[in-house]
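Lab intake sheet, docking and co-folding queue.

SAMPLE TYPE: protein with bound small molecule
LIGAND NAME: thiamine diphosphate
LIGAND FORMAT: SMILES
REQUESTED OUTPUT: full 3D complex as structure tokens
PRIORITY: normal
SUBMITTED BY: R.K., bench team

The fields below were copied directly from the construct record.
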Amino acid sequence: MPNHAEPSSRLTPPINKSNLSVTELKEVARNLRRHVVKMIAAAGSGHPGGSLSAADIITALYFRVLRYDPHNAQWPDRDRFILSKGHAAPILYAALAESGYFPVEELLTLRKLDSRLQGHTDRNLTPGVEMSAGALGQGLSFSVGVALAAKLDRRDYRVYVLLSDGECDEGQTWEAALSAAHFKLDNLVAIVDCNRLQLSGWTRDIMNLEPFAQKWQAFGWHTIEIDGHDFDGILAALQECQNMKAKPTVVIAHTTKGKGVSFMENNVSFHGKAPTPEEAEKALKELG
Amino acid sequence: MAGISTRESYGKTLVELGKDNPNIIVLDADLSPSTMTHFFAKEFPDRFFDCGLEEQNMIGIAAGLAASGKTVFASTFAVFASCRCFDQVRMCLSQMGLNVKVVATHGGISVGEDGTSHQAIEDLALYCALPGLTVIVPADGIETAEAVKVAASTYGPFYIRLGRPKTPFVYPESYHFALGKAVTMRQGRDATVIAMGIMVAMALEASDVLARQGIDCRVINMHTLKPLDEEAVVKAASETGAIVVAEEHLAHGGLGSRIAQVVAREKPVPMGFVNLGDRYASSGKAEELLERYGLTAKDIEEGVRAVVKRKQDT
Ligand SMILES: Cc1ncc(C[n+]2csc(CCOP(=O)(O)OP(=O)(O)O)c2C)c(N)n1
Ligand SMILES: [Mg+2]
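RESULT FIELD (auto-filled):
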């Protein structure tokens, strides 16, 4: 049965996540953003914008919310985090490494030949990665299947899936949205990284999604809107969805693409372009 | 004609499997009365999910269930199971290597009256193109039951193409299906017909006629297209010196292409191809269409005579 690679013996000790304060979470997020810049700069290619916009959401999940054991990646009762927007792999890899799934030094092998850290996520190579993604629009369907399995097996794990706003153009996302509500998957939470930019421009110009929250409501989802860079708001939303019964929850997280690096913020050209060594140095200085 | 449709055999086999294995989950896309997964749905309503007309979503859901340890069967018509959700199959089943069995019914032109939109004749090219997929086309109801059971107990993604109409039995009840192992239905020295699905019965019919004309024709059922039993192909080429491939599929990318690749590499001999060529069919009764588009025992006979002649001429 194909499965995750063996965890490395040289593991970073996991951060005790149960009691990190918001101040400490901010520190973790800053560190993850630094990893993202360094990894993509070292690789010479990649997608910084969508990793940086999702950094705070992913920090909140991996360092406060999710239940998991990095030494037992296949633990059947682990909460599942599914990255649907597979091009944001660097921020997930950074979170997994800092959580103890594999050594932090391995992050710099991103996109290199023989690396376990592929350009887009691969569940058969990277410990902790639940789904291979990269063709946008498939993650919510996969998550519906995982949430259904929890119901069938009477397990209480929760399923969190991170979508991009761009992939809400995909018809399949809405097929999955219909089905999650139809199957009453209250153990499923979709978080949409609404950074308002897609590959070639603003979502409102490329393909308007508005009225966005109303669409999810009309599809039968409990809908929460937050500032995706405010930890209090993220944590409150992820708490609120735990009380929902018979309905999936969507957290529409308003974010800034490239968040944390001034010249990448709201800059569509940093959707899929690596910083030059000089730009990376400048970015790291800004991040501190 | 004694026989049942391969889809009916599938539907009944699923119920049997469901009784023994609580881990089996069945998905359908609003076609369960036609794909015959409705038998399973009735028996095990908690383990059946109708995904509605959402084939792409169905494949993703199947993958999520399989990633959580389930053995998943997902069914719809072969046209939709291949063309509508190919990217999903590529990512979720081939690349992730998950334990999902796509069992697609109404394959080929023998669907009949529904016409070109409903006739899957490119599905095998698509599925065979994907690394890690096992692709099977059973020849009758008995082989279908066996193949479905083997799929259920073999880890990994499968595509099984079934048909709509009743298909004559070519096997006795005692038949044992061996995955990836071609079945020599009849020995012969002058030429070999390699067939799959409904073409197997026709190949046997053709070889009867040919025998009376003094042509001793081997018939092989290549039920597993991928992985292909290359040994059986090479043996047929070496021992009979001429091969005709018969399939209910377009000319390109199906069984004929796959076998020609092996023959060209290992043992070049004259080859003939009985298939749909490079065109769509139309509405009509199944038998009328098979006749019109060149998929009959007669077409196989002619194909064999032609390769035997070429063999003698060289
Ligand atoms: C099905 C599919 N079509 C096209 C692409 C190419 N692509 C990669 S990212 C992207 C859009 C990026 O915008 P968004 O989805 O909003 O992601 P984010 O802003 O979070 O980076 C596109 C079109 C793809 N990966 N998958
Ligand atoms: Mg976006």
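REVIEWER NOTE: Chain A touches chain B through 35 residues (CB under 8 Å).
SIGN-OFF: pending second check by T.M.
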